[in-house]
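Appendix B. Chain record.
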Amino acid sequence: MEPMRLQKYLARAGVASRRKCEELIAAGRVKVNGATVRELGTKVAPGVDAVEFDGEAVALSGETVVIMLNKPAGYLTAMSDARGEDTVAKLVPVGDYPGLFPVGRLDRDTTGLLLFATDGELGNRLLHPSRGVGKCYVAEVAGVLSEGERRRLEEGVELDDGMTAPARCEVLSARSDGSRCTVALSIHEGRKRQVRRMLAAVGHEVLALDRTTFGALSLGGLPRGQWRLLSSEEVALLDA
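Structure tokens predicted for this chain:
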């Protein structure tokens, strides 16, 4: 692991929140390699430097951290942006869990379930096409899908980067005036803007899009804009 700021190290080790850890450092309660450190900019190398809090050794757990975010609209799926755009990094505890990165991406205006992990290998496994991890999206679209259009989506539609794999599609509701409907579309691929492009291919513009599941996990009651840590059981279920 790369060197990190001492307060981040302590927070990730579970000593306290990052802000509280800054107070603990300033109070002289933390030592690095036997010397008391009060400078917040101090960096430590996990596994190399010896860190103590109130005389007790503090070490990072080797466990992978995985976080679920209910992403709101208006955020780029990135940890930084050179143009100063809002990114999902503002919504998750990157200070407490250095190394977090998004597993896949959701468009700026797409909402819903977005995972973050500290383990790059886990992220790669979850996204690899050979794993075929299913993801369900609920879309509000212009017009009402016909039965023929629904079947086309399930059988696969031709996009500019090739035919899509078979999917599951269900019309959940429709306005009586035929102006729009709500569709659940489950796919096992991860092409750029795939759901929007699939629905456009059968003649329907997506007005709003929300991802509700990733593999065996669902948002449950997680509020929009909030995050939570996944349990070890949930991580194992994801990586089964």
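Further analysis of this model is presented in Appendix C.
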